[in-house]
Amino acid sequence: MGLTKASPASRCADLRSAYHECFNRWFSERFSKGQCDKEECIDEWDKYRACLVEHLEEKHLRSKLMEEHETSLPNGRNDDSLRGFSHQ
């Protein structure tokens, strides 16, 4: 089943593309040449992440994702790899 223009996931598709284009450009033009500017693509990532979080909340999946992530950590280790998806 494909995505339709009205689907929430398609709303994030353009933001995903913008982030990936920015990241790929940064990686090939800067990072691979030893230049590491951590400020590159932050706006694109923040917009894409916000869209994903909104989509997860609409589908009531965000809390489920966080629960699954927390139970998968060994020895109660705190891992903030889903930092952008946690309740803030």
What can you see in these coordinates?
The structure is a single chain. This protein is an all-alpha fold and 88 residues long. It has one domain (9-72). The chain contains three helices and no strands. 5% of the residues are buried.
Summed up, what is this model?
With 88 residues, the chain is mostly helical. The chain has helices at residues 8-29, 42-58, 62-71. Residues 66-88 are annotated as: Disordered.
**Count of beta strands:** 0
SS summary, helix count: 3
- Count of all domains: 1
Approximately what portion of the residues adopt beta-strand conformation? under 5%
Describe the sheet with the most strands: none
Task: Give short descriptive properties of this protein.
MDM35_apoptosis; mainly alpha; single chain; 88 residues; phosphatidic acid transfer activity; disulfide bond
Topology of helices and strands:
Elements: H1 8-29, H2 42-58, H3 62-71
Region (Disordered): 66-88
Biased composition (Basic and acidic residues): 66-82
Pfam family, one: UPF0203
